[in-house]
Amino acid sequence: MNAAVQFDTLPERAETQRGLVAVAMSGGVDSSAVAALLQQQGRAVVGLTMQLWNQRRLPELQGDGPAQHRCCSLDDVYDAKAVAQHLNFPHYVVNFEEQFEARVVRPFVDQYLAGRTPIACTNCNTDVKFEPLLRMARQIGAECLATGHYARIRENHATGRWELLRARDDSKDQSYFLWGLSQEQLSRSDFPLGELTKEEVRALARRANLPVAEKPESMELCFVPTGNYVQFIQAYSQERAIPVQNGEGEIVNETGDVVGRHDGVHNFTIGQRKGLGFAAGKPLYVLSIDPEKNRVVVGEDDVLRKTLCDIEGVNWISCEMPSAPLRALAKIRHKHEPAPATIEQLDAATARVTFDAPQRAITPGQAVVFYDGDAVLGGGWIR
Amino acid sequence: MNRVYLDFNATTPVEPEVLDAMLPYFSGEFANAASIHTPGQRARAAVETAREQVAALIGARPQEIVFTSGGTESDNHAIFGIVNPLVSGPFPSLDKNDDFPPHRHVLSQHKHVITTAIEHEAVLNTCQALEKDGVAVTYLSVARDGRVDPGAVRRAIQTGRSAPNSISSNIPPATTLITIMHANNELGTIQPLEEIGRIAKEADVYFHADAVQSGGKIPIDVNTLQVDLLSISGHKLYAPKGIGALYVRGGTRLRQLLYGGHHQRGFRPGTENVAGIVGLGKAAELARKSLAEDARRLSALRDQLQQGLLRRVPQSRVNGGEAPRTPNTTNLVFPGVEGEALLIALDLKGLACSTGAACSSGAVEPSHVLTAIGLPPEEARASLRFSLGRHTAPADIDFALNVVPAAVAQLRELSPTFRKEAAAKT
To answer: What is the separation, in whole angstroms, between the first and last Cα of chain A?
Structure first.
């Protein structure tokens, strides 16, 4: 202890308020239903809504469209408040704009400009929701943070590990976005919707008379108000004076022959077909993106299929880092059908994934997540 | 749950005596104070009594008081009314037989305003609006104690005269208005308005003071301060929300902000809020009577809270404590703590206090005041304001001294940076 810190009267250690649970409330139906469900179970609930993005920024993106689809739109905040008022529990709006920009928005833009296809939601989960927000929840006296994610958490007493499992409702499963959570984060999190279907959640919201029971689902990235992320990247890069390998460049085939022109590499993602035309009657797809040479490489579908990829930032959840190659089902994007693969740890943070059969469009910036049945074994970012 | 409110700088409750004075004017005495008939004349009399009461609180003449909807309108009216960027006057005067000083009759792009970096948004954002229309604005910095240097005000004044040998046809701007708050809402710091008033008088520049946080807390005399305009808010001094006043020194050329009927001599049209005005008058009278006693009692309680927290919370410090302050306010930094989390933790335990200013969604934004007195962002975010009120009791202070140190300890326990720093020091 620092000798200069002298306790006159030692402050008594505040006891954790027994049973208090913080609910991360977006103002949508899922997280609102979580609050209602926990309250029905007799838990004391406090609602926290994150202010993540200043809507006054990048005004050129706002257009004349309705405001309700903007990130952190006041409507969503009011919806969350209305639910809290309806259920009569305390609710607070908390400002995480700085963290969200530093850990989600900026990396998202940087990755796109580097020719990769990032997943902002995973960064937001790992580095914002289950990091500073979870810490704040604990600091204000909550035992854990509950969210509206469709996934399940289970403590395995045999292994002593916290396991992450797919949601019961496979069509809503969000476990692919949660592979980055540490044991510490999982031990303090709660996903009450993991056992429910979307229909059951809506029915629950209706039974509880929640003011958001009929609210439509949002599918867009929350901070890209128009859904047009290319436009967002341009506007944000300009505002932050991020140098953009801008404008036109060459589209080449595998042998390096120029087959066309493009209007900026960040407009492309691997496997994309749109706007590329045909070669010898066969459709062309983006095979790779080279931001340094400002080139997009295209080819036919069969070239797009690969068996091997290296991943970084590897995180193991249901088991410790395996010392021998491990067989698992691996998913390379959210809507990918898991495929059998062997995962071989190369060093503390990287691994090699070898699929039994070639997989289409393994895309840098996305993640490989490995499953054993319902359990998420772990995952990592595709290099 | 036991709830203790230590956020009286945000707002105050309506005093029972104030409410009693107001009640007849909602239904029984409902007449329009602008009506000619007897009921109207009774409402008019109530309004004029209130005008006298408000004037008495600040040493003004009743005819120099304009009732408004609150502090924000008063500030807007004072600033836009003097420095209208699009119009060069002449404006109506409260004093009809007053000559219009010709040198104030300047064009928009040649106007200049002096203010400080720690004003309330009602002044800051109004000044920023002027800037968009071409008016030059100087935002004076403040010392670590939150005080502005009167010498800096003097040096910032621009005369509008070109340098003797200048061949440029551009006319340099002339300072039209100095607007500086009397007491700061976050720190309680009292600005040296007497000296600044003297400087403004010598330079013949209009001087506006936002006295929203000082009205009813410390003595105000508009002649001692030599202000031309002064803003007051009702709900900060135990009157209701939605009523305020603007003092306008006789002879001040002030352009009206709202257009409508001839209420309040055309200065502020709109049917008078009789009940609110009566409430503000009564509250001003009560404040005038109890001001000295309140100040004595509250500063003792405030000091007790401040000393107790400094003693019980390791590494805590007072922000802006070196300067004279309003007797009810203290602002402390608790390093290693997220003020937002501390505020919520305390609220869940029943203690209401404040950090920074809230934005439209209710989330906390970093305080421009704490940044302006030189606090690094992490300390600005680790700061909390406690503001006491007329009915704060010693038991309330004991409650705060009980819950705050425990909450800070719990937050620090869960703060990775604080624990890292503490470990590094061992």
So the answer is: 43
Inter-chain touch B365–A11, beta carbons under 8 Å: no
Q: Measure CB to CB from residue A93 to each of B363, B405, B406 and give the nearest one.
A: B363
Classify residue A63: in a domain, yes or no.
Answer: yes
Here the CATH number for the domain that contains residue A26 is: 3.40.50.620
The mean pLDDT value for B395-409 works out to 98
* pLDDT single digits (tens) A70-103: 555 788 899 999 999 999 999 999 999 999 999 9
Structure-token pair, residue A315: 């995180």
Tell whether the model's pLDDT for residue B117 goes beyond 60: yes
Task: Give the pair of three-digit tokens for residue B381.
Answer: 């975010």
Per-residue pLDDT tens over the stretch A183-241: 999 999 999 999 999 999 999 999 999 999 999 887 778 888 777 888 898 889 989 99
Domains of chain B: 4-11+290-425 (3.90.1150.10), 16-287 (3.40.640.10)
Chain A's closest residue to B338, CA to CA, is: A136
The whole-number pLDDT of residue A330 equals: 97
- pLDDT one-digit tens code per residue, B202-246: 999 999 999 999 999 999 999 999 999 999 999 999 999 999 999
Cβ-proximal residues to B172 (8 Å cutoff; 6+ apart), any chain: B110, B158, B159, B160, B161, B162
Phi, psi dihedrals of residue A238, rounded to the nearest 5°: -65, -45
Helix (H) and strand (E) counts for chain B? 13, 14
**CATH number reported for the structural domain that contains residue A290 in this entry:** 2.30.30
pLDDT of residue B300: 98
Average pLDDT over residues B74-82: 96
Q: Is A14 on the interface with B (CB under 8 A)?
A: yes
Any idea which residues of B carry the catalytic annotation?
359
Based on the fold, state whether residues A58 and A198 are members of the same structural domain.
yes
Same-domain status, A129 and A107: yes
- For residue B409, give the nearest of A14, A17, A51 by CB distance: A14
Last residue of a domain, one of A229, A256, A284: A229
Question: B189-207: per-residue pLDDT in tens?
Answer: 999 999 999 999 999 999 9
The CATH number of the domain holding residue A312 is 2.40.30.10
3-state secondary structure of A68: helix
B351 in A contact zone (CB under 8 Å): no
| A365 and A216 inside one domain | no
Domain count, chain A: 3
Q: What angle do helix axes B394-413 and B274-312 make, rounded to 10 degrees? A: 60
Q: Which of A8, A72, A136 sits opposite B312 (nearest CB)?
A: A8
- Domain residues for the domain of A335 are 305-382
Same domain? A251 vs A224: no
- The yes-or-no verdict on residue B18 having pLDDT over 70 is yes
Q: Judge: B410–A141 Cβ closer than 8 Å, yes or no.
A: yes
pLDDT (tens digit, 9 = 90+) per residue, B316-338? 999 999 999 999 999 999 999 99
Q: Are residues A141 and A286 in the same domain?
A: no
Looking at the structure, do residues A141 and A277 belong to the same domain, yes or no?
Answer: no
pTM, whole model, 2 decimals?
0.88
CB–CB of B115/B137 below 8 Å? yes
Taking the alpha carbons at both ends of chain B, their separation in whole angstroms is 40
Last residue of a domain, one of A299, A329, A344: A299
Query: What is the chain A residue with the closest CA to B377?
Result: A98
Q: If you search the block for the tokens 């989390």, which residue do you land on?
A: B341
